[in-house]
Write a structure and sequence with these properties.
Blueprint: E1 2-6, H1 15-24, E2 29-33, H2 34-42, H3 47-56, E3 63-67, H4 75-94, E4 99-102, H5 114-128, E5 131-134, H6 146-156, E6 163-166, H7 167-172, H8 177-181, E7 188-193, E8 195-196, E9 210-211, H9 220-230, E10 235-238, H10 243-246, H11 250-265
Parallel strand pairs: 1-2, 1-10, 2-3, 3-4, 4-5, 6-7, 7-10
Antiparallel strand pairs: 8-9
Helix pairs in contact: 1-3, 4-5, 5-6
């Protein structure tokens, strides 16, 4: 596996510090949030500084996060979203990411239009040199299960359509190992690994409930075994949004996270 870190795990750190810390901890890659990059530039930095920092650590960028609201609006508002997509896709491509995460609507329950909208993003991605990868969010009202996401990817009819897997969203949405087995290897862009807070039922958790690998109630070993069955040996990111871990020494958080990923994948 190619071990990466989603920077939400150490969110309070400054962008260049995140990159340095992740590299020094021994990760192969770093999954960046584009808003962090925009904020860095707004404060007087340059995108080239970010590129250099990543290169100095010898890391890859497996994907960038995120493209939102592409399924939420119609008319001129949707056109504005597509314009924003071009801006975000261009930045992600410049940072060397092969994928950008495409997040479904938060409140809208209707999903019939999403395959066509996803095709629009794929076309923009071809022009900008990056592939939007479909994301499902277990506590959103639209696409909240792995099965729903896979159906939309299939209905797009596009050969370059993919989805991004997430252990927390699989567990929290009641997605099954059989659902995971249905996903062809070439349709998996990336894998987020995380655990779920103990003592709180599936379906009731949200991002802040994610806990460190091994501290929660997800059978991660069983999920990883399915990934092995389908032949997945690509990129994986530790992705937490946990305020308790944000308060800890980020170097220690990164050390523990990498050790626990390796323990799971290298058994």
């Amino acid at each position: 596996m190619i071990y990466c870190l989603n920077t939400s795990t150490i969110k309070p750190q400054a962008l260049l510090d995140k990159i340095r810390l992740v590299g020094e901890a021994g990760y192969d890659g770093i999954e960046l949030w584009l808003n962090d990059v925009w904020e860095y530039v707004a404060r007087g930095g340059e995108v080239s500084d970010v590129e250099k920092a990543i290169a100095d650590q010898g890391m890859i960028v497996p994907s960038v996060i995120a493209m939102r609201q592409w399924g939420d609006f119609d008319g001129w508002e949707h056109q504005l979203v597509l314009d924003e997509a071009r801006r975000r896709f261009a930045l992600g491509a410049r940072l060397g990411a092969p994928f950008i995460v495409a997040t479904p609507p938060l409140e809208m329950e209707e999903t019939g239009h999403l395959p066509e909208r996803y095709c629009e993003l794929l076309e923009i991605g071809r022009e900008e040199g990056i592939r939007p990868t479909f994301e499902y969010i277990s506590f959103f009202k639209s696409v909240h299960t792995l099965k729903q996401a896979w159906e939309i990817v299939q209905r797009s009819g596009e050969a370059d359509a993919t989805l991004i897997l997430d252990a927390f969203h699989n567990w929290n949405s009641g997605s099954t190992l059989e659902d995971l087995r249905e996903i062809p290897l070439d349709k998996i862009s990336h894998y987020h690994i995380d655990d779920a807070a103990p003592g709180k039922a599936a379906g009731s958790q949200t991002d802040p409930d994610r806990v460190m690998i091994g501290d929660g109630q997800i059978d991660l070993a069983a999920e990883i075994e399915v990934l092995r069955e389908v032949g997945y040996d690509g990129t994986v990111s530790l992705e937490l949004f946990n305020a308790e871990w944000w308060q800890k020494d980020p170097a220690e958080t990164l050390k523990i996270g990498l050790e626990r990923m390796k323990e799971l994948f290298e058994k």
